[in-house]
Every structure is written in structure tokens, then in C-alpha cells.
Amino acid sequence: MQANSRAFFLLIALVSFGLVGYALYLQHAKGYEPCPLCVMQRFAFVAIGFFCLLAAAAQNTRSLWQGLGMLSGVAGIAVAGYHVSLLLNPKASCGIDPLENWVNALPTARVLPQLFRSDGLCTAPLPPVLGLSIPAWSLIWLVLLTGTLVVGLIRREKNYR
Q1: Alpha-carbon distances of 110 from 17, 34, 79, 103, 159, rounded to whole Å
Q2: Which of 3, 39, 45, 113 is the S-S candidate for 152 at Cβ 3.0 to 4.6 Å?
Q3: pTM of the full predicted structure?
Q4: How far apart are CA 25 and CA 128, in angstroms?
Q5: Contact by Cβ (8 Å): 76, 142
Q6: Helical residues (DSSP H) of 112-133, grouped into ranges
């Protein structure tokens, strides 16, 4: 698959949206309430998928959409990395996460509360999935998706020279 093909971007979008779908499954079928950091990671996955759909549809502005997808991925990596470090070194908590009020005040939490409303604590221990915490899996997938976009951009630029 070529790094500048529609299929390349559609595959990345499909994986991103699929991961958000799995997060919704964990939330609604398994009862795992998302914390504010989880919701912010969902924003990153949705943004990567959205920008990859735009890159797949556009020919002339493909690099712009790919760059915005990479930027979304880097932001998601920062959030997921912080979340993993928070789980590895939990801080004292009074039971109220101050980030929750901010995330729930965003318009997306009112428009799509099933997807973007936060009700959990960031330090709440959830059962691992295949031996890793959910934030660790999120970090791995964000690194893979962002890395794929970066490699695709580099390969495409080499082909144009």
C-alpha cells in the first residue's frame, strides 16, 4: 500500500474509529467509566480518524490533513503517557478529579455524552486487557498510528524528489 493512497488513510481512519468503538464497548458493555484523560485520548483517536478521512478525500491538501493527524497523535501520546505515568506513580486523590469538570464542560460532552462524558477517576485500577492497562494500550496504538503517518509522509516526500 502506498503512503499517499486513499487506502492508506482509510485504513488508519478505520483503526482509529475501531479503537474508539472498543472503548465504547468497554464503557457500555463492561461498565468501565472513562476518566477525563481517557476522554482526551478518545479526542485524539477521533481527530486522527477524521483528519485521515479528509486526507483520503483530498488530493491537493493531503499533507495538511496528514500533518494535523500527526499533531493529534502527538497530543494523544502526551496525554496517554501522562496517564500511564499516573497509574505507575499514583498521587493522593480526594476522590474528585479536577480535570473532570473541565472535560464535561466541553460542548462535545453535551452533544455526545455517550462518547465524551467523563465519570471515572484517572487513578482507578481497571482490569488489564491482555496483560496491559487500557491507557498503556492507548499509548501503544497512538504511537503506532502517529508513527505510521510520519513514515508515510517521509516516504511520500522521498518519492516526490
Answers
A1: 20, 15, 22, 10, 45
A2: 3
A3: 0.85
A4: 15
A5: yes
A6: 113-116
The answer to whether residues 86 and 37 touch, using CB atoms and an 8 Å cutoff, is yes
pLDDT at 96: 59
The CA distance from 20 to 42, in Å, is: 6
Q: pLDDT (tens digit, 9 = 90+) per residue, 90-141? A: 775 545 566 776 677 677 777 766 677 777 677 777 778 888 888 999 999 9
Nearest to residue 72, comparing CAs of 114, 20, 26, 28?
20
Contact in structure between 21 and 34 (CB atoms under 8 Å): no
Rg (the chain; Cα; Å):
17
